[in-house]
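Run log, item B.
One chain of 419 residues. Sequence copied directly from the ordering sheet:
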Amino acid sequence: MTLWEENAAYNKTYPQLDTKIDTDVVIIGGGFTGISSSYHLQERGVNSVVLEEHTIGWGASGRNGGMLNTGYKLSPAELIKKFGLEEAKKLDQYALDSNEAVRAIAEKHQIDCEVRQCGHLGLSRKASKAKDFAKSQELIQKHFNREVHVLTGNAIQEELNSDYFKSAYLDPLSYQFHPLNYVRGLAEVAYENGARIFENSKALHIQKEGTTFIVKTAKGEVHAKELIYATDGYSGKITKELHKGIFPLASFVIATQPLDERFVKELIPNNRNLYDTINLTNYFRRTPDNRIIFGGSGIGYPAKPKFKEELIMLLTSAFPQLKGTRIDYFWGGIIGATVDKFPVIGRTSDGAYYSVGYTGHGAAQSTLHGKMLAKCIVQEDRINTVFEETPLRTVPLYQQKKLLVTAANLYFRMMDKLS
């Protein structure tokens, strides 16, 4: 069980689909993207059905670190190089709007998910990394019209009680939240607005007859005018385009026992989101019940004991004060990544919609992507069409993805150690 499951405020269950039903839109996947799509469709008077293989928020939406960080996997310089300056400006604003969308929805519907602005720190164990941080700072302030701050020396000590990191940059506009409470709370809102939600209802067979999508589960089927794949890292071989275009990457998290409040405030005084800017990112934060959660990438899935030991080693390297601290929770999950490390909204050859490839930023961006999918279906103007205009490129040797991901993890581990 995850920490989020243990202290969840929303525990509504939904039935298994056991009959044939008709709807306007069928959505496969009950995470942030799927539930947001359903919520925004229902707001527009479009009937939706959500099919979730397990329970709402079971996948990455309920297994992440609860961080709504600004930006993308691509750096500001990479965004400008790839899309041009004007589009990069819009993309930066979209990332800010994504966080605000979560906060605004939670506030509007009084979803108890502890959403708050906290800022984040990108950290490095190398003092020389401050030069790279300064370049990003200059680009953001010059072109994106907002401020981030480069930290070294004592300035880092004011943010975390550790000598492990030698340079950092602070972006004050990131948020934290309880991810499982958010997705389950939003599901209840969508349900109250007329959405039909089914758990333990895996899509086993999908076909299109004429203009109708037919999705069959073990005990029922859905007939719909439109279909949305909201499966991201859990897409598997659900459809050819997603099988070819998505890397499933594993991530694992530990949570300590509750700590003395004064002690945990000494460790992370300003309650930021924190992450190491190496290739295989490690991320950590405080929780409202005074724990430290610490996450990072592992090789393969499901979780294995060696991944837990590795996370404990990394946690205590950053905070030697925590050696011997009891670990109460350990869990893992899958995120989706694309070749371009950039999210894509697209359509399959038979006309189904999808939104995939958040590459570690799904907690922040998937709510607004769900709204964008709803806008696509009702043919409303979109905030930004660059996600639709970005192709979902085929993963090289995609039929051997498991071996490819393992090799990539080994390579990046070696590079991180050498650097």
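Observations after the first pass:
- The domain at 3-411 is CATH 3.50.50.60 (FAD/NAD(P)-binding domain).
- The chain has 13 helices and 19 strands.
Flagged for discussion on Thursday.
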